[in-house]
């Protein structure tokens, strides 16, 4: 079975520019221009940046601490003193939203970036060595995929003693999601890496005696950059949704730690009595995951030379 060489999408745009006499633009500028012409993707980026600013700078705007109880305003709606209202115990929801959003974003970024890096190294290593080494690594990968991650999360984050008493719950959940979040991407990267192994620059590096790990890091990983960027945004979204789902059913982050999943789970039973406790974190989650999805779609179109949804990023000679 022969493997077809997959051309770099951005190189196609550069070659077309050279053939038509246009000024050649760098790969990065082409991608940025195509992304910035996609209004939906730019809107997603703006929303994501605003949410990140809210989760970091919001601590300087809040009037109450997340643990402070206002006994004179228990279960009250949004007001001048409590912008997002208070919980049934009298805690300020705005302060808890700042903390919860920051925790969810932090988990998403760590898991998304870490899982993408692990998948890139593991998948490219399988593609480079091939043969028996690839079969062993693929067997390990398939074995890990069959392990029920929800059971591991429940064991690690529940019960007393051990790691749970010494490490914050969100850190434990981040580690578990990181362990199980890279496997699907690694299989995809392996397939693409196998096609890159037939390229001339890889064969030349092998002929010159370049160490295998250096070939993987300097030649294979950079040439699947577009896939890694898309996997990064998907990984962040997956981690945030997983955190919300696990915390919602009570096996993820638990009180006193706060996250979007914790806030949504705690307010579900009181949605009719305290609707603001449910809708504020739920809307924040929709904006967060929705902005990431819009960014992912924009990046996919920016890396795709056949996409016409954002026009052409060419600069004509004067």
Protein described:
Residues 105-296 form the ABC transmembrane type-1 domain. Belongs to the binding-protein-dependent transport system permease family. OppBC subfamily. It comes from Psychromicrobium silvestre. It is a multi-pass membrane protein. The chain crosses the membrane at residues 41-61, 105-129, 136-157, 169-189, 273-292. With 318 residues, the chain is mainly alpha-helical. It has a single domain, classed as MetI-like fold (Orthogonal Bundle), CATH 1.10.3720. It contains 14 helices and no strands. The chain has helices at 9-19, 27-36, 39-57, 93-129, 131-146, 149-157, 163-166, 169-180, 183-196, 200-207, 212-220, 225-248, 260-267, 275-303. Helix 2 crosses helix 14, helix 4 (93-129) crosses helix 13 and helix 10 runs antiparallel to helix 11 (212-220).
Total number of helices = 14
The end-to-end distance, rounded to whole angstroms, is 48 Å
Helical content class? 55-70%
Name given to the CATH homologous superfamily:
MetI-like
Q: Mean of the pLDDT scores?
A: 81
**How many domains make up the coordinates?**
1
| SSE series | HHHHHHHHHHHHHH
Shape category = elongated
Count all strands and give the number. 0
The top-level CATH class is Mainly Alpha
Share in β-strands: under 5%
Low-confidence stretches: 1-6, 313-318
Q: Describe the biggest sheet?
A: none
Content-based structural category: mainly alpha
Gyration radius, to the nearest Å? Answer: 24 Å
Q: From the 3D structure, determine the CATH topology.
A: MetI-like fold
CATH architect. name: Orthogonal Bundle
């Amino acid at each position: 079975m022969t493997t077809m060489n997959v051309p770099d999408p951005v190189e196609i745009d550069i070659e077309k520019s050279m053939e038509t006499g246009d000024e050649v633009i760098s790969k990065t500028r082409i991608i940025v221009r195509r992304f910035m012409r996609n209004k939906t993707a730019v809107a997603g980026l703006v929303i994501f940046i605003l949410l990140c600013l809210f989760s970091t700078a919001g601590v300087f705007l809040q009037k109450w601490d997340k643990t402070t109880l206002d006994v004179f305003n228990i279960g009250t709606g949004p007001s001048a003193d409590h912008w997002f209202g208070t919980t049934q115990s009298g805690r300020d929801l705005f302060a808890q939203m700042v903390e919860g959003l920051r925790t969810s974003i932090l988990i998403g970024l760590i898991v998304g970036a870490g899982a993408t890096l692990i998948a890139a190294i593991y998948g490219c290593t399988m593609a480079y060595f091939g043969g028996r080494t690839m079969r062993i690594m693929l067997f390990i990968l398939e074995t890990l995929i069959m392990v029920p991650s929800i059971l591991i999360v429940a064991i690690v984050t529940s019960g007393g003693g051990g790691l749970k008493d010494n490490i914050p719950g969100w850190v434990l959940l981040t580690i578990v999601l990181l362990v199980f979040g890279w496997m699907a991407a690694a299989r995809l990267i392996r397939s693409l890496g196998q096609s890159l192994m037939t390229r001339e620059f890889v064969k030349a590096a092998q002929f010159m005696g370049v160490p295998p790990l250096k070939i993987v890091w300097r030649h294979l990983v950079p040439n699947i950059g577009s896939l890694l960027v898309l996997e990064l945004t998907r990984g962040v979204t997956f981690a945030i949704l997983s955190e919300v789902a696990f915390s919602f059913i009570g096996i993820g982050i638990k009180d006193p730690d706060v996250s979007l999943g914790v806030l949504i789970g705690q307010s579900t039973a009181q949605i009719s009595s305290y609707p603001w406790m449910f809708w504020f974190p739920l809307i924040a989650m929709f904006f967060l995951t929705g902005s990431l999805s819009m960014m992912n779609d924009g990046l996919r179109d920016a890396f795709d030379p056949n996409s016409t949804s954002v026009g052409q990023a060419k600069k004509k000679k004067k």
